[in-house]
């Protein structure tokens, strides 16, 4: 009986270096597929924390299954490794494109396909590393083997975790990012085919399989824009005229019978046909109330609202000297200050000399700044996840209170008091917990239905009945006070304060709007 002898320690040779390089690529590719699936899940299903948590948990569980299954692979290790690489290259590389298409053409199957693909890819990735380690044992002593493999594995994960949000997705988009790393997995398979050419049986069949996988990925790369455009055209109904993925969100602009519509992560932000109702209701109650109190507001801050529509309404007041727009995503302010069609929609507001654009997190901006403002317009997306939900907490409104002048007014867009009644009044309760007075009101916006807003201030607020700026299409001095009247089905209810430590608003919002979508 023969026994396998332990190799002696020595400097890594070409085979070891090549195998360790493959570990780096394998780790990078696996993490990309995991991140792409989680990002797409957050775009489609909302609540990014929940989606990332469940996708990552499922993926890690699947890797454990793959590692356990690897014990049953005993022969032809290089050939098995090559086959696994080709499967990962094909399935993982196409994963984002397949999910895009599923969301558009089979929305009911999206969740099942998402977790099915994550389980499959995770299992295959879990098979890879044990096989590489067993192949490397021929050349590397055990004490060096584990440390070297894990080092390259973690380095690959680190590289991708930085590159994915900062470069890969913004530059390539999710579909091409998946395909790029699928091509990397295919490259590892070709390398394995050459490196172990003397050990692999039926080399011609393996080579043909590798060529077919490579060809499929290259064809998908060439068609990536058409795939995502077709999927989004189907999902959004109207023609997609602009689509961009930033590190923070998926920005899609469509054009149809009702004009342009903006979607962020699949959620409608405005429709050209009736956005004037929303933005007039958002801005003019507080601006006109301040003006009635003795002079127009001179310093105004707009938090969120990177499309420039709220800024457009603020600039109707000639007494305004400076508007500070705080928008996290520079892609939004760049698009709406450079694209001709979008500049027309916001009346070139973002190019006004009175407007200063600050691309940063609004929470941090309030925390670090010292400037005071006469009016603050808070125009964030709805609290669909915890990263946005923090902007609806008592801590956020306490910071807002510090930056609002004693005679000033702030206004917060606050979801629908009809569809999400508890969510709406949770925001009111939270603002009051931060020491501010509130004046809730609502307006009908056809694209959204009945929509809510809340005035926050240090002093009592009374709706203005004085003349409003010229050119408004919705509000008049007679109709403005009527917005503050609530019927019985939208009347105030007892709610809990939304804090950073509990984020109850995100859960409430998801429950209330989830009932509508079912």
Automatic annotation (TrEMBL):
Subcellular localization: Cell membrane
Functional pathway: Amine and polyamine biosynthesis; spermidine biosynthesis; spermidine from putrescine: step 1/1
Principal subcellular localisation of the protein: membrane
Domain PABS per the UniProt entry, residue ranges: 215-458
Binding residue positions for spermidine: 279, 307
GO biological processes: spermidine biosynthetic process
Topology of this chain in the membrane: Multi-pass membrane protein
Active site: 379 (proton acceptor)
Cellular component, GO annotation: plasma membrane
GO MF, one example: spermidine synthase activity
Record key words, sorted: Cell membrane, Membrane, Polyamine biosynthesis, Spermidine biosynthesis, Transferase, Transmembrane, Transmembrane helix
E.C. code: 2.5.1.16
Residues the entry annotates as binding S-methyl-5'-thioadenosine: 249, 327, 361-362
EC category: transferase
Transmembrane spans: 17-43, 49-69, 81-106, 112-133, 145-168, 174-195, 207-224
Subunit structure: Homodimer or homotetramer.
Stored HAMAP family: Spermidine_synth (MF_00198)
NCBIfam families linked: MFS_SpdSyn (NF037959), PRK03612.1 (NF002956)
Protein's name according to its UniProt entry: Polyamine aminopropyltransferase
Species annotation: Hydrogenophaga pseudoflava
């Amino acid at each position: 009986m023969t026994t396998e002898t332990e190799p002696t320690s020595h400097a890594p040779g070409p085979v070891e270096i090549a195998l360790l390089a493959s570990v780096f690529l394998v780790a990078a590719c696996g993490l990309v597929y995991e991140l792409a699936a989680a990002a797409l899940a957050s775009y489609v299903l909302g609540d990014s924390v929940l989606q990332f948590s469940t996708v990552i948990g499922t993926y890690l569980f699947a890797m454990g299954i793959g590692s356990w299954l690897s014990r049953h692979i005993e022969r032809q290790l290089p050939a098995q490794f090559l086959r696994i690489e080709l499967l990962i290259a094909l399935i993982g590389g196409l994963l984002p494109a397949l999910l895009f298409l599923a969301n558009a053409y089979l929305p009911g199957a999206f969740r099942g396909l998402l977790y099915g693909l994550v389980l499959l890819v995770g299992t295959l990735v879990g098979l890879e590393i044990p096989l590489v380690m067993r192949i490397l044992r021929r050349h590397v002593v055990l004490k060096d083997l584990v440390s070297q493999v894990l080092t390259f594995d973690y380095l690959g994960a680190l590289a991708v975790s930085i590159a994915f949000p900062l470069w890969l997705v913004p530059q390539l988009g999710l579909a091409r990012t998946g395909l790029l790393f699928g091509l990397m997995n295919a490259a590892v398979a070709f390398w394995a085919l050459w490196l172990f050419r003397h050990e692999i049986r039926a080399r011609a069949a393996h080579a043909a399989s590798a060529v077919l996988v490579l060809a499929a990925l290259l064809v998908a790369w060439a068609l990536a824009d058409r795939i995502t455009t077709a999927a989004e055209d189907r999902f959004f109904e109207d023609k997609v005229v602009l689509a961009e993925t930033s590190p923070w969100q998926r920005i899609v602009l469509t054009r149809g019978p009702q004009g342009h519509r903006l979607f962020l992560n699949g959620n409608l932000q405005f429709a050209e046909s009736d956005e004037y109702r929303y933005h007039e209701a958002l801005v003019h109650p507080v601006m006109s109330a301040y003006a009635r109190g003795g002079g127009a507001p001179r310093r105004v801050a707009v938090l969120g609202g990177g499309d420039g529509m709220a800024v457009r309404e603020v600039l109707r007041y000639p007494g305004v000297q400076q508007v500070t727009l705080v928008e996290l995503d520079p892609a939004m302010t760049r698009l709406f200050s450079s694209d001709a069609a979008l500049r027309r929609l916001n009346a070139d507001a973002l190019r006004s000399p009175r407007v200063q654009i600050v691309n940063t997190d609004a929470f941090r901006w309030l925390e670090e700044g010292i400037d005071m403002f006469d009016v603050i317009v808070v125009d964030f997306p709805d609290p669909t996840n915890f990263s946005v939900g923090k902007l609806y907490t008592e801590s956020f409104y306490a910071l807002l209170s510090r930056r609002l002048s004693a005679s000033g007014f702030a206004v917060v867009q606050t979801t629908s008091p009809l569809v999400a009644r508890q969510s709406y009044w949770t925001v009111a309760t939270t603002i009051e917990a931060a020491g501010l007075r509130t004046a809730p009101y609502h307006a009908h916006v056809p694209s959204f239905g009945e929509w809510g807003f809340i005035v926050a201030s240090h002093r009592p607020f009374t709706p203005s009945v004085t003349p409003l700026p010229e050119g408004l299409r919705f509000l008049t001095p007679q109709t403005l006070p009527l917005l503050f009247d609530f019927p019985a089905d939208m009347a105030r209810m007892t709610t809990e304060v939304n804090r950073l430590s509990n984020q109850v608003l995100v859960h409430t919002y998801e429950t209330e709007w989830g009932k509508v979508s079912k």
